[in-house]
Design goal:
Layout (H helix, E strand, L loop, with lengths): L19 H10 L29 H12 L16 H13 L3 H14 L4 H13 L3 H9 L9 H14 L3 H14 L4 H13 L3 H13 L5 H8 L25 H10 L3 H14 L4 H13 L3 H9 L9 H13 L3 H14 L4 H13 L3 H26 L5 H13 L3 H12 L5 H17 L7 H4 L46 E3 L1 H4 L26 E4 L8 E4 L16 E9 L4 E7 L11 E8 L8 E7 L3 E5 L5 E5 L8 E9 L8 E9 L30 E5 L5 E5 L10 E7 L8 E6 L5 E5 L5 E3 L1 H4 L15 E4 L8 E4 L8 E6 L2 E4 L7 H4 L4 E5 L11 E5 L17 E5 L4 E3 L14 E7 L8 E6 L5 E5 L6 E8 L11 E6 L2 E6 L2 E4 L2 E2 L4 E6 L6 E5 L5 E5 L6 E5 L5 E3 L1
Parallel strand pairs: 2-33, 29-37
Antiparallel strand pairs: 1-28, 2-3, 3-4, 4-5, 6-7, 7-8, 8-9, 10-11, 11-12, 12-13, 14-15, 14-32, 15-16, 16-17, 18-19, 19-20, 20-21, 22-23, 23-24, 24-25, 26-27, 27-28, 29-34, 30-31, 30-35, 35-36, 37-38
């Protein structure tokens, strides 16, 4: 191998345009030759006409024709017969004819030479050139195939030219074979290496291509676009077919399904990518690179059943590709097999240190096994990789000199041990330097040293961030039994049950009735009108609680209100209690809401964010709790339409920004406690973002800019008082909490506390027998999202979302990240948002409140989401106001569906809290939503459908009265529906306390089984449907309501 050097030309792009024949001949001979016999590579191609004919019998006639083509015509007076032309003279004449585009004449001469000597491969080479010039590339390739590669003059040039022609003919397998043959015979010939890398990149075979490009780097012969290809080795090199790059670079038009699939992967369309590759694998025509890549797509798209089938189609050769190990790591992490997943990701990084996705998942893995030092090492690596990607994108898209960015990029690459890449980027900086020659000379010396000392690329220790992996060996993966090895892919387990699958043929109809019923609440984020540049506490909006405070059977509403400014946060307006007055007529019910705040004694002048309801003192009347800038408050319902206020905190805390609340027994004493989630606690909590020159915020304030708040627990005492404590007692347990749900999330007695945290891991608190709290979110698989990252985690919707008989939950997130869909199996949660089709429609939006609302009573929980950005960025791409969404449950997926035209639903809003209720008691679930900068709304469900339903209220006697955490199972024949009594209910809200169950076409219920929070079970039979029933612990019969 020749000494590597760095060329002073900017990109060396001209190397790609050198004809193979010329280059190979020069490489073979060490320079140019005037001997036409050893210069078979003049590929000048033109066409012309001649009357000359060449045959074995008339060779002298052919000689005369050659002379006529190359010398002056002899005079007719000359009677002397000229001597025959030599082979060299005839080849010179051929070259002249080709220069004149007279390829038909040249071909006749060459045919004569080949007849004389079939092994005259120089003549064969030139004949192939003339044949190609006349438009017969396939014949030309066949001619060159007759030249043995071992021929010293024409063998390698024939391979090179033939490979190029195969590319033109789209005979890509043949082209690859010929390029590889050249490199086998002449390993130092970099033009063949470059062209093969270009072909492989266009085919989506990125790791194979980059192995070749790294060799070009070692030779100091690499283009800028090739350096780009090394930044993230797994991402596509892609240009839309037929669309030429604007900068004149080589077009990376895709060749084959793997290239198209890799572009889909880059766009995070994993399922589509897998579907493109799978037929290739099934036909046996896929490369092992494609097989490995398909596994990664199946793992990313969460198709576990197909993933297992894919594993059966892999081989030891597949394991040579890093994407095989990345796929295995994703699958194992989703199964909470974290130690094994770390081993798999480590193997992926051994092969591809640019794999930022695996680096990110290593962080999750090490956090999950309580290895904070290792997690921090990979966190720094992830940050450096992100910086590299950002800088390379800047260089690729910006105009003008990017010398500074290139220098920064080189430094970042050097930090990761990618020294040779760094050197090559510095060479691009050097050519723009006034000391170019001196700088390039020094870089050449660096390059030679790196190559000689085997320091060009990251060592194993550098690839793994210096972390010792001895405790994380490669996983031993046993294939589960899912059908025969070659059998069909089976459906998810829940689809095997006797449930009729949902038919998405019902038109959803919701109508905003706020104005007609007198709902006039509008949440104010400040004492005067403010439309943007929100402080962190203002971004949250205000909550809403559904309760029947007067026990008249109709849902009332309690709304939070802000309307205050720092530093004292004394509000002009109070929170509002709306009493629901209904007049039930023969054919129609009349409904209106009246403001009962003052009459109920609920006037309070604090900045309120979260609200909730529950029976704190167990007297049968729902009480209220609010979270405020200052002091959290408990309002005890006196049973006469009034409330008595009690301060939960001893003193005001104006640095604390609280969020959601829940009332329910979490300590196992059958008395309700209060869980208060806090967002941040920081002296700069009132800081506002600056505006740009256009008067808008560039980026809304992030919670990570502030100190996190410790979540609080107000543990109830038998005397009605409480003891204040915290969930977790260390700085690490303080998180930026938003949503909360309290219920039984496993098959053990006692409630858990699920907290959705913003930009940091979620928490799932369980209480130990000692009374201590432990966060089991990592062990249970719900700490992070599907991509292995912490998410924004605002709203939480809890229910049996897949009809598997276990409790699941859906979490809304920020824009540019999908919602999360945590489905439970065997006590472990897995975020299967990708598999269930929730990604594309959720990624553009910022989701807040969400609920599991069965809009058509078909028995499958659907999802309704309130969306809206945290601030007004003045951007059409990231609008402040965003539309509501309704995702219909189709069994194995969720589909975003249209709602019948309604002025509210068809317009965007700045949605925040969202709570469920059956406002008009017609057996259809409605919901109420709060907004920023506009009035709150109540969406009445008017969907036309004939499905059945039941509404169930529970009253605990040995358990707390609200029976938070009770599990209700409804059975009808082979069908079952499972529901849980919850509190908190997600983001700043409380749903109607009775559970609503859609029954589909089920005409009768066999029995209802209740597992009460104290662990006792009870069965109720002969239950009517299409009405509300009350089930009381310890009483054998139900009550109609």
């Amino acid at each position: 191998m020749t000494d590597p050097t760095i060329e002073s030309s900017k990109l060396r792009r001209q190397a790609l345009n050198v004809l193979f024949g010329i280059a190979l001949t020069l490489a073979l001979t060490g320079g140019c030759s005037n001997n036409s016999e050893t210069d078979p590579t003049n590929t000048a191609a033109t066409s012309g006409e001649s009357n000359a004919e060449i045959s074995a019998e008339t060779k002298t006639t052919g000689d005369d024709t050659i002379r006529n083509a190359t010398t002056e015509t002899k005079t007719a007076a000359s009677e002397k017969t000229p001597p025959p032309l030599s082979r060299e003279e005839r080849l010179d004449a051929v070259l002249e004819l080709q220069t004149q585009n007279k390829h038909d004449q040249a071909a006749k001469i060459l045919q004569g030479l080949i007849i004389e000597d079939p092994t005259d491969y120089v003549a064969v080479f030139h004949l192939a050139n003339s044949t190609a010039a006349q438009g017969n590339l396939r014949d030309a390739v066949e001619l060159l195939a007759g030249i043995p590669p071992s021929d010293p003059d024409s063998g390698l040039p024939a391979l090179g030219v033939s490979a190029d022609w195969c590319m033109q003919l789209e005979q890509f397998d043949q082209a690859e074979e010929k390029y590889r043959k050249i490199l086998q015979l002449m390993p130092e010939f970099n033009i063949a290496r470059r062209r093969l890398a270009y072909l492989l990149n266009r085919q989506g075979r990125r790791h194979e291509a980059n192995a070749l490009i790294r060799e070009l780097c070692k030779a100091g012969d690499v283009t800028q676009e090739e350096l780009y290809s090394l930044i993230v080795e797994s991402d596509a090199m892609y240009d839309p077919p037929g669309e030429a790059p604007v900068d004149g670079a080589n077009p990376y038009w895709p060749i084959g399904p793997l290239a198209e699939a890799r572009q889909l992967f880059t766009l995070q369309r994993y399922a589509q990518a897998a579907d493109l590759i799978q037929p290739l694998i099934d036909s046996g025509g896929a490369s092992q690179a494609a097989v490995a890549f398909c596994g990664l797509m199946l793992a990313e798209s969460q198709q576990d059943d197909r993933f297992v089938q894919w594993l059966r189609q892999t081989s030891d050769e597949t394991k040579e590709f890093p994407e095989y190990w990345a796929a295995l790591g994703i699958h194992l992490a989703r199964e909470t097999r974290y130690e094994e997943s770390i081993g798999a990701f480590a193997q992926a990084l051994r092969g591809d240190p640019s794999d930022h996705r695996s680096v990110r998942r290593m962080i999750l893995g090490f956090r999950s096994v309580a290895e904070p030092t290792s997690a921090e090492a990979f966190t720094k690596r992830f940050q450096t990789l992100n910086r590299v990607i950002t800088l390379s994108n800047q260089i690729a898209t910006a105009d003008g000199s990017q010398a500074k960015a290139m220098a920064e990029l080189a430094d970042a690459l050097e930090q990761m041990g990618r020294r040779l890449e760094a050197t090559m980027w510095r060479s691009l900086v050097a050519v723009q330097s006034p000391n170019r020659d001196k700088d390039l000379q020094a870089l050449n010396q660096t390059l030679r040293r790196l190559v000689a000392d085997d320091l060009a690329f990251p060592s194993l220790e550098e690839r793994l961030c210096g972390v010792d992996m001895k405790d994380f060996p490669l996983p031993e993966f046993e294939l589960p039994t899912i059908g025969p090895p070659d059998g069909p892919v089976l459906s998810p387990p829940f689809l095997a049950k006797d449930f009729p699958q949902p038919e998405l043929n019902t038109q959803a109809i919701f109508r905003n009735i706020a104005a007609e019923i007198g709902l006039q609440h509008r949440y104010q984020v400040a004492a005067s009108e403010q439309t943007k540049a929100f402080a962190i506490y203002q971004q949250l909006g205000g909550g809403v609680a559904v309760l029947d405070f007067d026990l008249d059977g109709w849902c009332d509403l309690y709304f939070a209100q802000g309307d205050a400014d720092p530093p004292q946060f004394v509000a002009r307006q109070s929170d509002q209690l709306y009493r629901h007055l209904a007049n039930v007529l023969a054919n129609k019910s009349q409904h209106r809401l009246v403001d009962a705040t003052d009459l109920a004694g609920l006037h309070d002048q604090q900045y309120t964010i979260g609200v909730s309801a529950g029976d704190w003192n167990q007297d049968g009347f729902p009480d209220l709790v609010t979270s405020n800038m200052g002091v959290n408050r408990l309002y005890i319902n006196q049973g006469d339409g009034t409330f008595v206020s009690q301060a939960l905190d001893a003193q005001r805390d104006l640095q604390r920004c609280p969020s959601s609340l829940a009332i329910g027994d979490v300590t196992g004493d059958h008395l309700p406690d209060i869980v208060a989630v806090n967002y941040v606690r920081d002296s700069e909590v009132t800081r506002k973002p600056s505006l740009n020159s256009n008067g808008y915020v560039d980026v809304g304030l992030s919670p990570l800019e502030f100190q996190a708040g410790q979540d609080q627990l107000y543990k109830s005492s038998p005397d009605g008082q409480w003891v204040l404590s915290t969930l977790g007692d260390t700085e690490e347990t303080a998180k930026q909490g938003l949503g909360v749900v309290v219920t039984g999330l496993d098959d053990q007695r006692g409630n858990e506390i699920l907290v959705g945290n913003d930009a940091v891991q979620n928490q799932l608190w369980s209480r130990l027998p000692t009374g201590d709290w432990v966060d089991r979110s990592i062990a249970r698989g719900c700490a992070f999202g599907a991509r292995g990252l912490a998410t924004a985690a605002m709203g939480i919707a809890v229910g049996d979302l897949d009809r598997s008989g276990t409790v699941d939950f859906h979490i809304t997130n920020f824009s540019d990240e999908p919602v999360s869909l945590y489905l439970q199996e065997g006590g472990t949660f897995r975020d299967l948002c990708i598999r269930f089709g929730l990604v594309d429609d959720s990624v553009p939006l910022v989701g807040f409140g969400t609920q599991p609302l069965d809009f058509n009573n078909d028995g499958w929980l659907d999802l309704v989401i309130a969306n809206g950005h945290v601030d007004d960025l003045g951007s059409a791409d990231k609008p402040f106001r965003q539309r509501l969404q309704l995702f219909a449950n189709a069994g194995s997926r969720f589909e975003l569906i249209d709602v019948a035209e309604d002025p509210y639903w068809s317009q965007p809003h700045s949605g925040r809290a969202l709570a469920m209720l059956d406002f008009d008691r017609d057996g259809r679930q409605d919901f109420v939503v709060t907004n920023l900068l506009e009035s709150s709304s109540l969406l009445l469900n008017e969907t036309v459908q004939a499905n059945h339903w039941i509404k169930i209220g529970l009253v605990g006697t040995n358990s707390e009265r609200d029976a938070i955490g009770a599990r209700v199972t409804i059975t009808s024949g082979a069908r079952q529906w499972s529901h849980w009594v919850t509190s908190g209910d997600g983001y700043l809200c409380k749903n109607e306390s009775e559970m609503h169950v859609g029954l589909g076409d089920t005409a009768a219920i066999d029995h209802i089984d209740v597992q009460w929070p104290d662990g006792t079970t009870q069965t109720f039979q002969d239950i009517p449907i299409d009405q509300k029933v009350l089930l009381i612990q310890g009483q054998p019969t139900f009550q109609l309501q």
